Queue: 3 jobs
Job 1
Amino acid sequence: MPRVIGWSRYLIIIPIIGLLLASATLFIFGGIGLIRTVIEGFMHSFQGAAPAHGEALPVEVEIVEYVHRFLIGTVLFITAVGFYQLFIDNIEFPHWLRIDSTEELETNLIGVTVVVLAVQFMGVVFTLDADELMNYGIGIAFPIAALSLFIGLRAWSTSRVKISQREIELIDEHAEELIEVRRRSIDTSVDA
């Protein structure tokens, strides 16, 4: 049975492949669309005419929407890499992309999710009226605040646990020495 459970961890390859394909799709088609938008912007600026975008959005909004797609692709990629590192094997990546626990994976995902929400809000700034914008902003602010609180409390509790573990390790390292010193002081007081 332990062997079956050990091999079952390789089932995670299925979502890893799906996440990588979805990430690649967002990167490739987003990149192509961004390049097309930039080229159209240059062409229209040299012709002196206003660009004819699909929904008459400012070019800045379209570019922010592409950034939004890239960030979602990044979330998917980080999740795929994190699953691989947690369940299959380590990969040599920069230290900021190294995942050693589900807690680190969650923290990375929450961080990128907050950025995605902020970029999404920037994208709608140009398209909504003031009342709708305020409601939309509040709707995005609450999850960002909750996620920030979650990360802060988790970091605080983790640091407390690490401090406690280090104190225990120090006590264990020096316990024999402390016992010997105490024994000597008792022997010295008895001899006197």
Job 2
Amino acid sequence: MKPQRVADDVEVALVEGHCEEHGDYQVERPVVMGRPWGASCPECDQRRQEAVAQQKREGLERAKADRLAELLSQANIPKRFEGFTFDDYEPVNDKAAKIKQACQRYADRFEDRLQMGGGLVLCGITGTGKTHLACAIANHVMKEHRRVALFTSVVKMSRAIKASYGSKSDRTEEQVIRSFTDPDLLIVDEIGAQRGTETELLLAQEIIDERYQQVRPTILISNLSESRLAEYIGERAVDRMYEGGGAILAFEWESYRRSGKGRRFPQPGPQLVPDGMRDFYAG
């Protein structure tokens, strides 16, 4: 068929052909240097394009999965709390339910938190789910927002700093401090669990202050009350946790570990339990 001009510089021609799989076909193709370009079977072309698109989607999904695996492996979340979600947390009263909702909103809107730097303080009675909810936030931030989260404690931060002073250390003090100030979300557990040295307290204050300056959210977990927490890390550090839409959430109810409402792990089968331990696992 004679080429038809469809634009000032573009001509198309109707090309006829035969495909062993799909039979005879006709297809319009642009004319390049006097000849139709790309006169292959349109159904085969469509299948190849779909295959390429599928490969790209699968590659993207693999890249996402690899990135998530990397984030999870580097987050240092305690094994007991790996994979914890908000669905795993069962509020024991209305206040617990409201705190759970607040933590969910914080995780859902984490991109906003990154813009404002708002943190959280989870403080109060031991065994009420503070670490559970903090880890649920971290897991959500990594899985849904692909952001870097890190779980640590004041003691661990102090030990890491001290280790950098050794002659065999491969990191400087500055590099170790940056490992705590760079993550998108830092969770510091066991604030005030033991009487820290002045150096440890100054270190915690320095890291909180640096993250505040860099507008990076921080979550502090403590069994202390808000007033006693301020005595431990300073009024200034606590005040800064309120900025950028941050909040202090007080867990003031009975330990759900003692009430038996904490998350249970799969127990071993009867054949794996020594006779003397069966009553323990049966409870």
Job 3
Amino acid sequence: MALGERLGRLLAPGDVVALRGELGAGKTQFVRGACRGAGVPRDEVASPSFAIVATYRGRLPVHHADLYRVADYDELYGTGFCDLVGREGATLVEWADRVPEALPDDRLEILLSHDPRRPSARRLEIVGTGARHAALARALGRPRRRPRAARQSPRRPEKRGAGRRGRGPSEGPRPRGPKSRVRE
């Protein structure tokens, strides 16, 4: 959800985010995080599986589409979805691979998958096509910096067994950032 919030803070009008992944991969949770980052109240965001498209108001309109139940482009067209894409708000699309012809070529694609070694963890592959979405992919692919106050002071002695980056042995390995590729 934290990466979704980062994306939400970066979203601009016209952005299109295509989310792909199996059932339970975390697409709706990612959208909830992005909406939170875009200033949408938490209790307003739900998966629009039956309504197909929901629009939320934050610092910009966020159009959230769930294409799981959509059979083809004609059915999707009848929902008004095509009138929203690339317009005044950002568009987040779950199950984007169901009707790929409905999305613009320039977009941010995020593939979510389960990590077989850690059931509660997810792997993300982020691909940005077009200059704007490539910049988003680069921004999301960068590790987030800790706030200055949280960084370890050079004067403070490092705990035994903490390793080079100050992580204690009970904290496990440092999480890796999402894999990202850029197509411009």
